[in-house]
Each structure stands twice: as structure tokens, then as C-alpha cells.
Amino acid sequence: MTTFINTQLLHLIIALVAIMAWVGLNALVLVYFERKFAGHIQRRPGPFEVGPHGILQPLIDGLKLMGKQLLTPDGADSVLFWLAPVLSFVPVLLLFAPIPYGPVLTGMEMNLGILLILAFAGFNSLALLLAGWASKNKWGLLGAARAVAQAVAYEIPMLLAVLAVAFITGTLNLTEITTMQGAWPWQWNIVIQPLGFIIFLVSAFGETNRAPFDLPEGESELTAGFHTEYSSMGFGLFFMAEYAYMVVVCSVCTVLYLGGFKGPFLDGWWWFLAKTYALLFLMIWVRWTYPRVRFDQLLNINWKWLLPLATFNLLATALFIKL
Prior knowledge:
Elements: H1 2-41, H2 57-67, H3 78-89, H4 91-96, H5 113-121, H6 123-134, H7 138-169, H8 174-179, H9 189-192, H10 194-207, H11 219-222, H12 232-257, H13 269-287, H14 295-322
Helix pairs in contact: 1-12, 1-13, 2-12, 3-6, 3-12, 6-7, 7-10, 7-14, 10-12, 10-14, 12-13
């Protein structure tokens, strides 16, 4: 029994270390790709000076953030102010644990893996609320209020889309959902749940505060939203957390709808990364293509379109299974 516990603990520690390295590497890669992608869409080179084609620019920016002074605004609640970025970033490490990146590349095998991800992802909303409220800045507080309203709204259709897949597969285990899908695209869940896939993807933009739904960070009217007063690694943790949550939602979408690590020729982590990064590039492409919507439009998209469609999709799925 003791040997089993020690083995499980060692496996979990190795998984957490690998996840931390994976999150850091993803942040560097995605920042570079986003800047380059934005540059090409806008007919400019993007970062070009530091390293070949600016490849070292994200690393230099990270070092610059770590070297800056940590400042607490006058009148702010210093404990909650600095707790917020930590609370936004730390739960990310648990979100990656139940995701099967390959046949044997799962940090922590769980029967309720999807439930763990949905539960701990909610901590980000609490972190954004603390960041805006504790900084004693009215623009930060308005940004936090927007963030909470947006997160609460878009969690509901996303949850309903996930439930439809759970109804079909009969499990909340991400590894089992992957194995129930075939190797070829017509054997993936997206074929029988195309509406659920679209709802999940649109909700993912809202959950991760990505354009055109990045209202909590509306620079034109709110300076920088909930992280107006943050500098140095306080801002850096929020920045890394945003990209980490992007990777999480794209990874979950890959498992639920795109066959996970399964591919036409040989199953493995390379298929998982290819599908996940294809979705990430789609999120980047949308950011630099579509303008930011108004806040009333943001909520109307959810309450008038996504929620009714997600409810209809769930009921239709339940009826199909019953018949």
C-alpha cells in the first residue's frame, strides 16, 4: 500500500513539473506566434530585432517583467491584490492533469476529469474579481465586473455542450472519451455534435476573454481593465494564465470533438498537439480579424443565441439516445 502511494505521488510530482514546463514553453511560443501572425495579417513584420526574426523577443519580455519593481497602489488591499494573480495562475496546473496528451501521457487519470476542469477553471473569475476590487481603481473594478458577468454567462452554454458529449459517451473521463472515437475524422464526435462543437468554441472565446470578447480588458474605455494597476510579474502571471487557459480549452475541445491523440496513421501526442495548435491559431486569427463587440452585444450573443441552441442540442441529444 505504501509503495503504491509513493508511486502515485512520484507520478503526480513528475506530471506537475512537466506541466509547469509545458505552460511556460507554451506562453513563449504563443506570444511569438501571435505577434508574427498579427504582423502578417496587418502587413508588417512583427518583432524582428531580437534574435533571428525576433524569435527571442518573448524571452526578453519575460526577463524584463521579472526585473521590474513590484508596486502596490495606495489604498489597495495588499494581501488580496497580490493573491489575485497567484490565484489566477496556480489552478492552471491542475487543469492540465486529467488531459490525455497520448496513450500514456496523462498526468492524473480521473473518472471525473471534465468536472475537475470546469470546477477549478472557475477560480479565474474569482481572481479577476479580486484583482479589480483590491486595487481600489474604478476602472479595474469595472473590468472585474465585466469579467465576472462574462464568465458566468459563457460557462452555461459550454457546460451544456460538454454534457451532450457526456450523454453520448456515457463518461466524464477524458481518456475514455478519446478511446471511444475512431482514428479518422468521420469517426470523431464533431460529426455527430457539430452544433455542440460550435457552441463550445464560441464559449471558449468568451471564457478566455479573447477578442472579439475581450471586454474586461477594454483599453479604449477601461485603460486595461482588471489589471490596470499591475506591473512586473503580477501582470506576467495574468498574461501566462490567459495563454494557459487558451491551451486548456483547445485541449479539451480536441478531446471532446476531434479524437484527441488519435490520428489516421499512428496514434500519439503529435496528433493531439497538431489539433490543439490548429484551434489556437484559429483563436489568434479571429483576434486580429474581427473587431471587439459591445458589452450588450456580448451578453446578447450568449443569452439569445448560445444558451437556447445549447439547450436544444442537449435535449435533442437526450432524445436521440432515448430512442
